[in-house]
Description:
307 residues, globular, binds thiamine diphosphate
Amino acid sequence: MVFMSNQSEMHLYAPGHSGCPGCGPSNALIQVCDTLGKDIIVVNATGCMEITSSQYPQTAWRVPYIHSLFENAPAVASGVAAALRAQGNNHTKVVVIAGDGATYDIGFGSFSGMMDRGENVLYVCYDNQLYANTGVQKSGATPYGAETTTTIVGKVHKGKETERKQIVEIAAAHGIPYAASASIAYYADLQMKLRKAKAINGTTFVTIDAPCCLGAGFDGGITFKVAKLAVQSRLWFLFEVENGKYKLNFNPANPKPVREYLELQKRFKHLSEEQFDHIQRQANLTYEVLLEKSGMASPKPEQKPSQ
Ligand SMILES: Cc1ncc(C[n+]2csc(CCOP(=O)(O)OP(=O)(O)O)c2C)c(N)n1
Ligand code: SF4
Ligand SMILES: [Mg+2]
């Protein structure tokens, strides 16, 4: 491991990990660790960010780190939080870091249990919308229309046939004090959400759009462009749910067409006009719903009861 001369300039997630050049999730980890600081203990589920960060005898983590399984990362984090409590330590934050496969699908039971118990843990999902580590299978976060090795494109099937799970809403429905959606392309917003989530004594959840250049099929040099366009075209939203109250943090009132985002990625190269239209309609609809939930929708004309 190479150490920099000026220790204060070091990222807490070190360069030299083996993520692909332009890897969105690796960048998410740099932003997460730098924002949360040294006083954390990371519990990492399996996935690309575990494989590329912690191959013995090397590690990219400059904070205490435990690798766990999909099925029990939130349970392990709950145990660490209990141990800290028993020691009278009320400053170190336990942070789960897990992919979308771990969060939406494989480890969801454990995640749900942790939220139900209200453990003092911050759960961060780096959402690359697919199972990257095992060769690009679909996850519950994979968007409609995307091609993966398990949502194939051929004569009958044209990519994923269902929509993404609404994971922030699902987390918020557990009654946790804070759930939020962020993006690697909006650092100030991400920092605000992580700091807020860290300060709360209870279970908090932040999911981060972190595009995977290899799995989605684009050049690693445009990862931030892809992430930014997702937000600008209303296919990813920056919002938070604090004690049940929704807030849209960035209002893409003059959106880019979804096509601009989709056409940058090979996983969408087969899309038909009908599929583009479907995705555009869904994006607009999700926006309207979020505006409504955030109390930002323009008031509807008064409806008179029929006589
Ligand atoms: C219980 C279990 N099921 C499946 C696997 C195989 N597996 C390892 S990594 C992975 C993909 C994880 O996807 P995600 O959580 O999105 O992380 P990413 O690889 O995208 O970073 C899978 C399916 C496993 N290790 N354990
Ligand atoms: S496959 Fe995707 S998530 Fe994995 S290291 Fe490469 S860019 Fe990152
Ligand atoms: Mg993933």
